[in-house]
Amino acid sequence: MESNGKNSLNDGTNGKVGTKGSTLWVCELVFRLVCVATTLAAAIVMGEAKETEQVPLQLTPSLPAVLYPVTAKSSYSSAFVYFIIANAIACGYSIISLGGAIANRGRRGKLAMLIFIIDELMLALLFSGNGAAAAIGNVGENGNSHVGWNKICNVFTKFCSHVKISVILSLVGALNYVFLALISIISLHKKDK
Predict the structure, then answer these.
(1) Where are the chain's structural domains?
(2) Running along the chain, 193 residues long, what does each successive block of 10 average in pLDDT?
(3) Which one, out of 62, 132, 168, 185, has a CA that is 20 to 30 A from the CA of 179?
């Protein structure tokens, strides 16, 4: 059976080991695995962010302060809930797209274009979730004197650390989607040549 130098599976390698097509495919798989890990970790860390501290409550200037237990929890903020949901959706999609990328084996076509388009939607979703969580995290860290919101991270240090870590993890996942977009552009452009 004559092959004319082309791989019958059309896996993007043209029958050669270590070519640019197979390197891009391996990079795509690695980036998708990192997306799964980082978005899953970000959702879990933010979902578990909870801390209770005794906060002094001054009723009147003549009486001593009374310690009152106050809880900071990620579910108390709609921005944090949105962040958790955005990362959970991105994680679920990353698992599905990893399977699609393995099944597609570096081929170009309708599936590759669909994955590229949904990758961009996930990138936008992650960046919007990160922006929402970072904005509320910044208010927690610095407060907002214009509206009388006090900073809370000097009291709830563990909670604020969880928020920071989860935003960083999610940003790493979003950055991997940027790299996946570049890989898709290169791969889809190669098809046109």
Answers:
(1) 20-192
(2) 45 45 85 97 96 88 88 94 98 94 76 88 97 95 90 93 97 96 82 56
(3) 132
Task: State how far the Cα of 79 lies from the Cα of 99, in Å rounded to an integer.
Answer: 30
